[in-house]
Design goal:
The chain is of the alpha+beta class. The protein is about 55% helix and about 10% strand. Strands 2-1-3-4 form a 4-stranded mixed beta sheet, with helices on one face.
């Protein structure tokens, strides 16, 4: 039986969703965030970095969302969630499977870190920290994030999903950056028709909804 080490309010939701799409049985060990929003130290007993998601399967411990997704599809017959090799759709699939964590999420994490920065320093330094956070957001992070949101909208405008006209695991990978991004950009982003339609499509999938039921709390604003 696969064990998913699931940190509440995190991108680990995508692993539960993929397992539900595959119809593979699994158990969940749920971990609660501390007051600092970090994962508990007990996760380090599973993997040295103490991060989620992590899965255990047949004595193997596998971390990193993209690596877990590729392992599950390779191991449990999810070929319908991956376009055929050698196609343009497969190239897009591979790109977005890695882009989600390699390009999109670092900016979103930095956005969250700078948003929390003023409250994490001594009281006398908070006005300065707030100015630093505001400057980093307006001059560095927000312009890049707007480029990424425009990129998402353009790609989704082609045929509705990230790797062609059919739903794939690349869409699962991209779900968290988009949901997190939308929670931080608000109406400005959700007004975009391609993104709005994509979110409606993925949230209507029975497997997505079952994953929410199994995993519990899932706040897009956290990472």
């Amino acid at each position: 039986m696969i064990i998913v080490h699931y940190l509440e309010n995190s991108r680990a939701h995508r692993i539960l969703w993929l397992l539900e799409e595959l119809g593979v049985p699994y158990d969940i060990n749920v971990y609660r965030r501390g007051a600092d929003m970090r994962a508990p130290a007990s996760l380090k007993a599973v993997h040295p970095l103490g991060k989620s998601p992590v899965i255990e399967d047949g004595g193997k411990v596998i971390a990193e969302s993209g690596a877990i997704m590729e392992y599950l599809i390779d191991s449990y017959g999810g070929q319908e969630l991956r376009p055929p090799a050698g196609t343009d759709e497969r190239l897009r699939y591979t790109y977005f499977l890695h882009y989600a964590e390699g390009s999109a999420m670092p900016l979103l994490v930095m956005k969250l870190v700078f948003a929390k920065l003023p409250s994490q320093v001594p009281l006398l330094l908070r006005p300065i920290a707030a100015l630093i956070a505001k400057g980093a957001g307006s001059k560095f992070l927000d312009p890049q994030l707007k480029d990424h949101v425009a990129f998402w909208e353009s790609e989704l405008g082609r045929d509705g999903y990230f790797a062609g006209a059919s739903f794939t695991a690349a869409d699962i990978a991209m779900s968290f950056p988009i949901e997190a991004g939308m929670s931080r950009f608000g109406e400005q982003a959700t007004a975009l028709p391609g993104i709005r339609s994509f979110l409606a499509a993925i949230r209507a999938r029975p497997a997505y909804r079952r994953a929410l039921t199994r995993g519990g709390a899932y706040d897009y604003a956290e990472t």
